[in-house]
Amino acid sequence: MKEKLELILKNALDEINKAESLQSLEEVKVKYLSRKGELNSIKKNLKDLSDEDKRIVGAFANNVSNQLEEILDKKSAELYKAELNIKLNAEKIDITLPSDFRPQGKVHPLTDTINEIVEIFQGLGFSVMPSEYSPEVETEYINFDMLNFPPNHPAKDMQDTFYTKTAPNVILRSQTSGAQIRQMLNQAPPVRVISPGRVYRCESVSARKNNLFHQIEGLLVDKDITFGDLKGILNEFVRIYFGSARPTRFRASYFPFTEPSAEVDVQCIMCGGSGCRTCSNTGWLEVLGSGMVHANVLRNVGIDPEIYSGFAFGMGVERLAMLKYAINDIRLFFNNDTRFLKQF
Ligand code: DAH
Description:
By secondary structure, the chain is α+β, with helices and mostly antiparallel strands. 42% of the residues lie in helices and 19% in strands. It is built from twelve helices and ten strands. The chain has a seven-stranded mixed β-sheet with strand order 1-5-6-10-9-8-7, sandwiched between helices. The chain has a three-stranded antiparallel β-sheet with strand order 2-4-3. Strand 3 (162-163) and strand 4 form a beta hairpin. Helix 1 (2-18) runs parallel beside helix 4 and helix 2 (22-33) packs antiparallel against helix 4. 30% of the residues are buried. The site of 3,4-dihydroxyphenylalanine has 11 residues, from strand 9 and strand 10.
């Protein structure tokens, strides 16, 4: 029996040595040490031995199973470590490798320009009008009539308007100036606001003109406001936006809702003033219209022009961006060609 035990020990050690995975080691353990294992079947036969042999062989059998357990534990720890290392090696990541290229999104140059202009005017004490005063689908009444365009007056032709089929006189607004009306109908003076937004005109598209573009409307109404205040604010805006080195000029103009009216031109950046296609050979590009709010407009919204006066302006966002960044075609803003957009 002792020889049998020695043989079991020898075989078991052999098999443990050969085991290459935790699973095959477990199989060895079951084969020799489980309840139905080889060692146990020997221990079951001990009862047939004499007391003396029982003691000797029993002790030897216990010794064998203790030895096997110890060795199995040791081998199991080794295999566990080896398997873990293989797994870790397989899952290793080199954190110094450059990552996948993920293109980064950016703010559109027009949004960026609007934000910049809004910030300049906020710095000059203007606040942004609630957006509900400035809908893109507007009535002729607000877009024209309340702004002192007489019915059927040829002045309406100044802005070729998109009409809708929704209802007669419902249009895509041709200017942000209607926002002035809604603001003054909702707030008594003093008023000091700006309102950026999209406008639409039915024109043929070219390098200088698009059907859709952006304006920023400004309005200041209070007591004792003069044309000097308007000039001061606009000069300050131009100085901050372009820097002082850019030549600009104030030019008398006409709008039905302002009297007197003026436009601001900025020297063409494409030709430096000598004249080119972008500026129609004039050397200048108009960037905004402005003027003193017409007494009729103040009366239309219930403000007494004997007590209050004000100025207003509307600037073209695309023009301002083109002149700052030397962009010679307005259509570039709307094509969404990433080669163009990436430059900002
Ligand atoms: N709405 C005018 C346009 O689109 C621009 C303008 C002129 C706005 C004079 C004003 C203003 O507020 O006072 O051509």
